[in-house]
Amino acid sequence: MKFSDFISSEAIKADLHADSKEDVIREMTAALLEAGKIPPEEQESIVKAIMKREELGSTGIGRGVAVPHTKHPSVQRLVGTVAVSGEGIDFNSLDGEKVQLFFLLISPPDRPGDHLRALENISRQLRDDTFCKFLKQAKTAGDIRQLLEEADNNQFVS
Amino acid sequence: MTNCDQQIIATASSTATDLSWAAGREPQTTVKPMIEMKAVRSVVLTNPQGLHLRPAELFVKRATQFQSKIEIIKENLRVDGKSILNIITLVATEGTPLVLEATGPDAESAIEALAELIERNFAENETTEEQG
To answer: pTM for the whole thing?
Structure first.
């Protein structure tokens, strides 16, 4: 699976205003809402479901990366977006580090395989230090789009 | 669910230096005998959601309680069992056969604990199943 298969290009955000976990999730789902990827009446329910998952254990998996996610019946296919915070946000990460890169995923409840393939793509690409570093330095949504496109074309993974 | 093809390989050497070269590491200066234990176990993943983030995290938590190097093998992929990011790259769905391999002083108990974790479907935390 490639980034372009599940990342909504119009919902990508370069400079998060949020300064808390819940605000990050709210800001990212709002971007998906504006991009027409989730129904307006479901946003609150999606935010709550993602926060509930975070209570089980942070999805801040280290290296300044978090993958907040949930299953939700309001989507028919895997929906995702990317956001970058220049300063980093406290996300109760497993390694205690602040998080700069956020990959938010919403999956239909009956498609666990797609969720796994999206996670695989994210983790495989992020193992590349150059990709990780460039993404953290991205200043505009356009920068992020270009980096994801390059990653999809295997320009980072050897 | 576990095949019984566990194997324990133990090698001992009177000089640590010799063995450390054989294992591809830097030579060590200690002179006490070094024992390299290796344990291998085949398991089948029965979790309907596959090896997603939460079970990967539980696996890493358990794996890091052991000194041994832990690896998970799926077909021709071999990853560090103490890294969530690496485990996720396996895309292990329900029914995937995996091989667990531990190398180090507590290899056998590590394999035992990790195979049990997978066999019990990561059941330490019952609520993980629904929330991914």
So the answer is: 0.81
Fold classified for B38-124: Histidine-containing Protein; Chain: A; (3.30.1340)
Contact B89, A124 (CB under 8 A): yes
* Chain A residues within an 8 Å CB radius of B91: 116-117, 119-120
Do the chains contact at A71 and B132, CB–CB below 8 Å?
yes
Count helices and strands (H / E) in chain B: 5, 5
Task: Give the domain ranges of chain B.
Answer: 38-124
Architecture per CATH, domain A3-152, reads as 3-Layer(aba) Sandwich (3.40)
B128 closest CB neighbour out of A56, A112, A115? A56
CB B81 within 8 A of CB B72: yes
Residue to mutate among A95, A123, A131, A157, with most B CBs inside 10 A, is A123
Q: Closest chain A residue to B90 measured between Cα atoms?
A: A120
Kindly determine whether residue B93 and residue A112, on different chains, have CB atoms separated by under 8 Å.
Answer: yes
Give per-residue pLDDT as tens, B67-80: 999 999 999 999 99
* Position A32 pLDDT exceeds 60: yes
Instruction: Give, in order, the Cα–Cα distances in Å from B3 to each of A11, B52, B64, B70, B79.
Output: 47, 23, 24, 18, 21
